[in-house]
Amino acid sequence: MSLVEASIILSVVAVLSAALAPAINGYIEQARQARAREDIQTIAEAIQDFIADNAEHQFLRNGSNGATYGDKEPPTRGDANKVYLLVSDGDIPTLATAVSTESYWTQAVNSSSVDTLSNHLIENLPAETSGNRYRNPTDIALSSVGSQNIDFARTESSGFNAPYAWRGPYLRGPVDPDPWGNRYAVNVAFLDPSPTDTVSGITAGFTASTDYARLDVFVLTAGADEEIDTKSAQDGAVPGDDDFIHLVSSHAK
């Protein structure tokens, strides 16, 4: 092959590559978006399963009251024991100018008000503390409470017909970042049907005692621009710009 022929071939390859690159990049982006939609649906369904199993309307910092199985009464559900935001692994996205006051979304994990999806849905270790775990069927069956209260367990069946207990894992871990490397976030503060505590950094104009119980709970990912454009407190949630959301619970609690 002569140098001229090689140059012609390379030129053709370069032209074809330039022509195909946008299409290839488009397919890659479509695949990322499809995965993001699938992920947020999976996370939403896992949260719904957790709620159904535990008969809880919220996520708790301490799911067991710190008690041993022998006196494992239901945990306290006051505001001081609530988790307000659950997140996956991944970077914290930036906030778009239109939602620059939504500091709720950008809080770092602190193992109290902000915790990981993995701790609650995979590991049963709220705040990464074994003493905080949610009650499982065996715990309840072994307790004096469980043997006396049919709502918790029946001792003769080792508790596995307990109506309300942690039966996870609800997700196959770990909970990876979204396709753009950022974290998924869930505004679980609004699962509480009767809140009294004001959540900081949310969309302005909502009062805890009168409004929170009708606000939507949803899984959020910031999308390709890695910038959050979605308001945290909404009744009739709509994603901003290229964000993706999936409803966990609408205002009909």
Observed structural traits:
7 strands; five-stranded mixed sheet; 253 residues; elongated; single chain; two-stranded parallel ribbon; alpha/beta
Walk me through the topology:
Blueprint: H1 3-54, E1 85-87, E2 94-95, E3 114-116, H2 117-121, H3 137-142, H4 144-148, E4 185-186, H5 208-211, E5 217-221, E6 227-228, E7 244-249
Parallel strand pairs: 1-3, 2-6
Antiparallel strand pairs: 1-4, 4-5, 5-7
How many helices? 5
Number of domains: 1
Distance between the termini: 74 Å
How would a textbook summarize the main sheet?
5 strands, mixed
- Fraction in beta strands: 5-15%
Structure, explained:
With 253 residues, the chain is α/β, with parallel strands linked by helices. The protein has one domain. The protein is 28% helix and 9% strand. The protein has five helices and seven strands; from the N terminus they run αβββαααβαβββ. The chain has helices at 3-54, 117-121, 137-142, 144-148, 208-211; strands spanning 85-87, 94-95, 114-116, 185-186, 217-221, 227-228, 244-249. A five-stranded mixed β-sheet has the order 3-1-4-5-7. The protein is elongated. It starts with a helix and ends with a strand.
